Structures are given as structure tokens and as C-alpha cells.
What does this fold into?
Amino acid sequence: MSATHPHLRVFDASDPRRASRAGADLREGLGKWRLAAALAWGDIKHRYRGSVLGPFWVTLTTAAMVVALGFFYSHILKVDPGTFFPWLAISLILWAMVSQAVTDGAECFTSAESVIRQLSLPFTVHVLRCILRNLLVAAHNLPLIVAVMFLFDISPGIGVLAFIPGFLIFVCNAFWAAFFLGMICARFRDIPPIISSLMQLCFFITPIIWMPEQLGDNAHWLLFNPFNAIMETMRAPLLGRPLEVGVWFAAIGFTVLLWIVAQAFFTRFRGRIAFWV
It folds into this structure.
């Protein structure tokens, strides 16, 4: 008669315990946030090695786009430059953060292929590494937001604190989007270019270089645009604009939906990620 060692974990294919393993991956990965932060910082140093300005090139590019597009579209759309410039500047900064989180998150697993194949780390670490890397780069645009608010005398007051929950909603969406898109793109390598093309389309159908007021009675359709809902929870407090309750419900609803879908996919296909990359 053979005896099983009490501390030996035996994997039973008929009972894979996918949910418990996925939950353990999330807990262990979030607990290793310091490792993810160190890897993210190393990515930024490697990406901008030899560069004089480093990530501040993103700030200069955004500032140039604001100046060029601001004069151009304020004339074409016949809107007040004093109102349009702050809207355009903060919208472009937030869109750059959102767009980069989506496109970079789609490759969070494939870009970490060598690490996944060599080290036994929770997959959550790679997602967290991607999110922190993009947040560090986005932080370089903060001085530009402050400059815009100062130049155009925008004083949102205590209402600016509403930016915090909006930012947390964005981080949650970026986290689960990276999980979901990272798995899809690891399985199907032709998906990342499609995502990049879709993000370009979303740029034009999201109020960034145009304002919702220009839609008139059709502005309510923007509630079905997840990018607008998530961006507006951050943009409205910074601009001192009133934020509709419907926008909050839409942003939270999209966040919950994305979480359910991403969690379901991760629970079901977590064991295959290492083979897909």
C-alpha cells in the first residue's frame, strides 16, 4: 500500500481548482508590488537609455499637439479658445494615458515572454508591471496639467478631489483590460495591430478634439462610450465642470463588466498563458 506524504500537493486533472488558483495568483501578485515597481522602473530606464529628456519627450509632444490643434480646431469649430484650449490639453493628456494603457496592456504577457518561461511568478506581477510603467510615464504630464490650469485661471476648488475616485476607476479598468487583452493577444498575435487601429477610431468618436455640447440633443449617446465615461470622471473635476451622475454610473458599470469578463477569462485560461507566449 502506498502512502501519500501529507505535505505533497497532488494535482488532480479532474479537479483543477481554477478559481482558487486564479485567486491565489492575484493575491500573491499584488503582494509583490515592490517587485513589479522595480521591474517597471527598469523598463523606463532601459527604454529611454541614452535620451537627454527621457519620458519628458512625451510632455513636449503633447504640448506641441495642444498648441497646434488648439489654434486649428478652435478656428474650424468656431469655439472660444479660452474654453477649448484647457479642454483639449487635459483631454489629450488623459487620452494618451488611456490609449497607452490599452495598447501596452495588450502585450503585457508577450513582452514578458522570457521572464514567464524562466521564472515562476504570478501572472499578476506582469500586469502590475505594465500598469505601473504606464503610470510613471503619465506622471511626466502632470506639470503640463498644472501649467494649463494656471495659464487659463482654472480653479476647480474642492471639487478637484473628485479626480481621485475617477483615477481609481481608470486604474481598475487598465488593470483588468491588461489581463483580458493580454491573454487574447498572447493567443492570437494579430490582435495588437487591430487594437491600435481601433484606438485610433475611438480617438475620433470620443470627445477629445471636440466637445460634447456640439452634439446637441444627441450628447446622451456618449454614455455608451466607455472611454468617454472613464475619461470624464477625471476630466470634469480638473476643469471644474459639473459631472453628471449618469457618467459615474456608466463608468462604474463598464468597470464591473470588464472585471467580470477578465476574471472569467483568467480563471479559465490562466494555465495556458505560459504555453501561448
Q: What stands out?
A: Confidence is low (pLDDT under 50) at residues 1-12. The chain has one domain: 41-276. The radius of gyration is 21 Å.
